[in-house]
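#dry-run=false #mode=assembly
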Amino acid sequence: MDFDWDTEQQGFRSTVRAFLAAHLPADWEELAHGPGSEAQSAFSKKFCAELAKAGLLVPHWPQRWGGRDADPWTAFILAEEMWAAGEPRGGQYMNVNWIGPTLMRFGSEEQQQRYIPAMAHGETIWCQGFSEPEAGSDLASLRTRAEKHGDSYRINGQKIWTSYAGHADTCFLLARTSPGRNGISIFLLPMTTPGITVRQIPSVIGEGDIHEVFFDEVEAPASAMLGGEGQGWEVVRTALSLERVGIPRFALAARMLSRSVARLQGDGRFGHGAIEQAARARAACEAARLYSYNIVDQRCHGIPTGPEASAARFATVMAERLVGEFVVEHMPDALAGGDPLLLAHHQRAIVAGIASGAAEIQLNLIATDLLRLPREPR
Amino acid sequence: MDFTLTSDQEAAFSAIDKLAAQFDSRPTDFHGFALEGQELDRQLEDGQYFDIAAIPEYGPVTAALAVERLARSPYTVESALSMLVRPQLAGEWPRPLALVENGRPGRFVASAKTLLILEGGRIGAAKPPAEALESVESLFAYPMGRLKQAVEVTWFSESEAAILRIWLRTALAAEASGLLHAAIASTVEHLSVRKQFGRPLGTFQALRHRLAECAVLAGGVRWLALKAAATADPGDAALAALHAQESATRVVYDVHQMLAAMGMTLEHPLHLWTYRLKALLSELGGRGGQASAVARHCFGTALDQ
Ligand SMILES: Cc1cc2nc3c(=O)[nH]c(=O)nc-3n(C[C@H](O)[C@H](O)[C@H](O)COP(=O)(O)OP(=O)(O)OC[C@H]3O[C@@H](n4cnc5c(N)ncnc54)[C@H](O)[C@@H]3O)c2cc1C
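#status=ok
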C-alpha cells in the first residue's frame, strides 16, 4: 500500500494547477457563483477550448477521439483540481466524464462524428434530461412519451431540475417508448428542436442552475436514438457506472474549510467550539478522499466497482455537510456577500446529497449490496 | 410546577395566534429570499403586542410564546428582540432592534432604530442614524443589513450585560423553536403528498424516524425556551440556545434531504424557515459560545465568557 503520488502524477497535478493559475481571470471567484449562468456558460466554453488545446480536457479518452488513453488517476487528479478551483468547466464536466464515453460505446458512427469532436474541443454544452416531476428517486417511472410515427418519434412530456438547460446545445434525453423498465429509450436532441421550451427555476443554489424543460410535439428522427429502442435503462446504468466515484466534492470542501480556518485564525476567533468542528470536518473530508481514491484504484486494477462506490458517495455527502455547517456557523458572512467562492461552495454543498441521486437511496444500496441486509418490502 | 397557561396568558396568546394566522400563507408569486411582514408588524404595533412582556399578567412567557408563534409565519418580523430583550433595557430604546455581532451583517440591521452591539465580551446599544446602515443581499431569509460606520454606543455594565445575554439567548431559542416547527410541518405535508415507488414518501421508515426525531428536538427547544423565559436563569437560557442551534443544524439538513430538489427552489417555502435558522446558527458565538455559557452556569467551569 502506498499513499504517495508518483512523480508523473505530481507533475500532472502541477501542470493542471499552472494552467488554472494562467487561465482563470482575476474575478473568477465571482464568476464561479451560479454554475449555469450566462456569464459562466460563456466563460466555460472559452476555458474548455483552451483546456482542449493544452491536452487537458479529455486526456483519458482514446487517441482516436482526441485523448491520450491516460489512466483513471489522471482523469481524477484533473477532476479534483477543477472542482477545487470552483469547476471552471461548468456543465462540460459531464461530457468529459460520461456523455462522451457513452457515445463512444453506444453511439452510431453518425452520432459519434456529429457530437464527440465538439466535446473533445470543449465547444459544446449538454444537459441531462432524466428527472421528471413525478419521477425523482423512482426514475424508472418516467412518463415523457416518444411515439413512433413513420421514420421519426414524436416526444411529449416534461423534465425538471435539468441543470445547464438554459445554455445547452444538446439534451441527453430519457423518454418512454413502451411501458416498463425496458420501455425507456435515449434521444440525443438539439435544444433548438421546435417544441422544446426551457424555464429556469428560481432557487437558493444560484442563477441558471435548474430548469424545467417542456416537450410539446417534438419531432426527433429515428437516427437521434442512442442504442436500440428500449435499451435506455441499460445504457444509463453503464453511463452512470462510468461516473460512480462522482464529483470529487471533498477537494473544494477541504479547500473552503482551510480558507475559513485561516480567516478565523487571523481574526483570533478560532476558539474551542470551532476547533473541534473544524477537526471533525477535516477528518470527514479525508475519509471521503480515501474512499474515492479506493474506487479509482480499483478501476486502475480492472476491478469492477461494487457497492463501495455508494459508500464513497455517502462519505462525500458527510464531508460536505460538516464543512457546509462549519462555514454557516463560523463564517456566516459568506452567505451575505462576504466571499463569493464560499457562497458558491455553500450552494453546491447543500445539494451533495440530492443531485445525481438522493443520499438515502445510496444508503439503501449500502444496506442491501454492501451489508447484504434483506430488502425493504415494496 | 404547572404547565398550563393562566387565562390571561391564554387570551393574549390566542389573540396573537389569530392575528398571525392571517399571514400563514405565502404569496405564490414570491420568489425572493427574505419575505418581510410589514403589515404583520404594523398590526402587532397597533395591538401593542411588542410590549406584552412588561405587563405582569402576561410576562415573558407569553412574549416567548408569541415570538415562537410569529416565527412560524412565512413572513418575518422583528419580534424576538423587541418582545424579549427590549423590556430589559434601561432607558428609551425604540424598536425595531437588531444585533450587530463583531461587526458582521445581522438580521434587520438595515431598518433598526436600536442596535445592540456585541463586541468581544461587551454589550452596548446605539440609535444609529439611517445613513449609518445599509442592506446586504444574502441567502438568509431575513432582511440582512450592516453597520457602515462607527456610531455612538452606550456600553452596559457587566451585570446589565449578563442579564441581556440571558434574554438574547432566550429570544434566539424562542425564534428557533417557531422556525423549526414550521420547517417540520412543511416537510410533513410534502412527505404525505409526494409519492415515489408508488407510495407516499412518508411511509418510508428511513424518513419517518428521522422526521420524528426532528419533531422531538423541536419540542425540546420549545420547552427549554419557555422555561428560560420563565426563570430568566443564565444556565436555562444557555441550554435553550445550545439546544436550539444544535437541533437546527440537524433539522435543516434532514428536512432539505427529505424535500430533495423541491427544497432548493424559491417556489417552495421551506427555505424561508431553514435559511432563517441558518442565520441563527452563528449568533451569540454559535454552539461553542453556548457550550461555554453552559460550562460556566451549569457546571461551574469558567471558559471565555
Ligand atoms: C442542483 C440539482 C441539479 C440537478 N440536475 C439534474 C439534471 O441535470 N438532470 C436530471 O435529470 N436531474 C437533475 N437533478 C434531479 C436529481 O437527480 C433529483 O433531485 C434526485 O434524483 C432526487 O429526486 P427528487 O428531488 O424528486 O426527490 P424524491 O425522489 O422526491 O425524494 C425525496 C426524499 O425521499 C427520499 N426517498 C425516496 N425514495 C426513497 C426510498 N425508497 N427510501 C427512503 N427514502 C426515499 C429521498 O432520499 C429524499 O430524501 C438535479 C437536482 C438538483 C438538486
